[in-house]
Write a structure and sequence with these properties.
This protein is of the alpha/beta class. It contains 24 helices and 17 strands. The chain folds into 4 domains: 165 residues, NAD(P)-binding Rossmann-like Domain (Rossmann fold, 3-Layer(aba) Sandwich); 89 residues, Helix Hairpins, CATH 1.10.287.70; 147 residues, Rossmann fold, CATH 3.40.50.720; 143 residues, Regulator of K+ conductance, C-terminal domain (Alpha-Beta Plaits, 2-Layer Sandwich), CATH 3.30.70. 35% of the residues are buried. It is a multi-pass membrane protein. It is found in: Cell membrane.
């Protein structure tokens, strides 16, 4: 387990590379250029018709009231042709002769043909895919340029990407979406997200598309490569690390060979869900409390903390799966000391009569549930783990009382969110999985005592002058402990429904700090608990009266007027 969670932190040393400009334009994507190019022939035809009509009307003589020959000036001829050809029809400037009226009739038919040609070409242009793509790209680029706060680029809006985007939106984080599949980008409009999300249907593996999505933008803080294609994710990792070194990039990968290629570019994380699940399963077998704590804290749903899994360690395990999932799970179980038997799903129901655990993971969700139910009938006390490609059959899984459910997209989304929403939280996860089971039991006991079984929202408390001005001002002249910060400003004897997870001081991480630990003005404290506790703590961060009350127990007037009155009250 230790090797599994730490191996991605030891990256290959990257080579120094010369700076390269990030392309942010695709060829032939300017809507105005496309309009001019497609409308060139109709405009030339209309201009020619106007010129011939004006010239002819200027040359053909007319007659005045005395019967003398007259000619319209070029401007008068242009004026008449303009409102005639545009079907406005003010009438004749002067009484026309028969020759002039015959010429005007010819001009009317020529201009009608010209306008029909131009309008038809314009309507065809508006319906063409190239023009619509160009307009969409220009609108997308304008939205991205208007972002003036940190944002992430999410490549792929499938099951994992969609779940990540929903959680990022709830956390108030801005993001940009790119997906090449038809119809996926359109879901964003119906997902009822709080923010206006720039989204583009394009190939995210192209550097120019990443450039349009804001890779070169100073506010871009990371890229999530969550597409369904491992090769595209590799291309995204390459483009991000080569064109903008130092930018955080997290990639999803199912193929072990592609994963190794990604590691050469030193991304922040490569999440192989098949490999991850085997490690989590071993963690559940060896340290169930640690597994329960980590999985519950990473799960964005507001579910109560489940009871720890009770699989029987050791003994024989049957893995009925195919592909790399079977290889990864078998390898992890064997390293943990299990005797593993691999069964081919095509051979029917495997023999589980002497097994302690059964893992089923074919590519068909219905087949997986059927195999799991048959195994449960054969052995009611059998520990059953099932892989599900999607959560569409979550109700069936719940009804079958499956012990452990593995959904690859859900695991990818949870780990990605744990790394990007509160990066300090992932350091706690890495630390927790390296500790004995008693460490997690202690954290669970503190969470249960202060928050019950449902509070798991996280917040990073910055004790600087910008993050917590009231607490910072108090720390400049007096001390505060972690326990005092977590006291309620409504009643000092009441503990907020919050538990400290990590205290960062001068780059050093203090995990699960004791509440008697004193804090300084440069510290950062990661807490977890109920939303009500986070709201109350936010008030303490900005209220001088609340900060002094939790430190001393003295009620201090909030406003300047009340402080003046209290100061003069003893003298009176």
């Amino acid at each position: 387990m230790l090797a599994f969670f730490t191996r991605h932190s030891h990256r290959h040393r990257t080579r120094l590379r010369r700076p390269v400009r990030i392309p942010d334009e695709a060829p032939s994507t300017d809507a105005i250029f496309i309009v001019i190019r497609r409308m060139r022939s109709p405009l030339v035809f209309i201009t020619t018709v106007f010129a011939i009509s004006v010239l002819g009307l200027s040359i053909i003589p007319g007659k005045d009231a005395n019967g003398n020959a007259t000619h319209l000036s070029p401007f008068e001829a242009f004026y008449f042709i303009s409102y005639t050809a545009s079907t406005i029809g003010f009438g004749e400037i002067v009484p026309f002769t028969t020759a002039q009226r015959m010429w005007v009739t010819v001009c009317i038919f020529m201009t009608v043909v010209g306008w029909a040609y131009a309008i038809g070409t314009l309507l065809s242009l508006l319906q063409s895919a190239s023009f619509q793509d160009a307009v969409a790209m220009q609108r997308f680029r304008r939205k991205v340029k208007r972002i003036r706060e940190p944002f992430l680029i999410v490549c792929g809006y499938g099951q994992a990407g969609r779940q990540v985007c929903r959680e990022l939106d709830e956390a108030g984080r801005r993001f940009v979406v790119i997906d090449s599949h038809d119809g996926r980008v359109e879901r964003i409009a119906t997902d009822e997200l709080e923010s206006d999300v720039p989204a583009l249907e394009a190939d995210a593996s192209l550097p120019s598309v990443l450039g349009m999505a804001g890779l070169s933008n100073q506010y871009c803080e990371g890229v999530l490569a969550l597409t369904d294609d491992d090769t595209d994710n590799l291309a995204i990792v390459m483009a991000t690390t080569l064109l903008r070194p130092g930018t955080s990039v997290i990639a999803r990968c199912m193929d072990r060979v592609v994963e190794e290629r990604m590691d050469d570019f030193a991304p922040n994380a490569v999440i192989n869900p098949s490999d991850r699940y085997g490690a989590y399963l071993v963690l559940a077998l060896q340290r169930p409390a640690t597994y329960n704590l980590v999985k519950w804290l990473m799960d964005p749903r507001d579910d109560a903390m489940p009871k720890p899994l009770q699989p029987k360690p050791g003994g024989c395990w049957v893995v009925c799966a195919d592909g790399e999932f079977a290889e990864e799970v078998t390898s992890d179980l064997e390293r943990a000391g299990m005797n593993v038997t691999v069964a081919d799903p095509k051979d029917g129901h495997p023999d589980v009569s002497r097994a302690n655990g059964f893992v089923v993971g074919t590519d068909n969700d219905t087949t997986n549930l059927a195999l799991a139910e048959h195994a449960k009938i054969a052995r009611s006390d059998l520990f059953v783990a099932v892989r599900q490609q999607s959560d569409a059959r979550a109700s069936l899984v719940s009804a079958l009382a499956i012990d452990s459910v593995f959904t690859p997209t859900e695991l990818v989304a949870q780990e990605s969110l744990a790394r990007v929403v509160t990066p300090l939280f992932w350091s706690f996860v890495e630390y927790a999985v390296q500790q004995p089971n008693e460490f997690a039991e202690g954290i669970i006991a503190r969470l249960t005592a202060h928050c019950g079984h449902t509070g798991k929202e996280r917040m990073l408390v910055d004790l600087s002058a910008q993050g917590s001005p009231a607490l910072h001002r108090w720390l400049l002249h007096d001390e505060l402990t972690v326990g005092q910060i977590l006291k309620s400003s409504d009643g000092r004897d009441e503990h907020l429904p919050l538990v400290p997870l990590v205290l960062v001081r001068n780059g050093e991480h203090i995990f699960a700090p004791d509440e008697s630990t004193t804090v300084t003005t440069d510290d950062h404290l990661l807490v977890v608990g109920h939303r009500s506790g986070l709201v109350a703590l936010h008030e303490t961060q900005y209220s001088d009266a609340a900060a002094e009350y939790i430190a001393t127990g003295a009620h201090v007037p909030e406003t300047w007027l009340w402080r003046k009155l209290k100061r003069h009250r003893p003298a009176a």
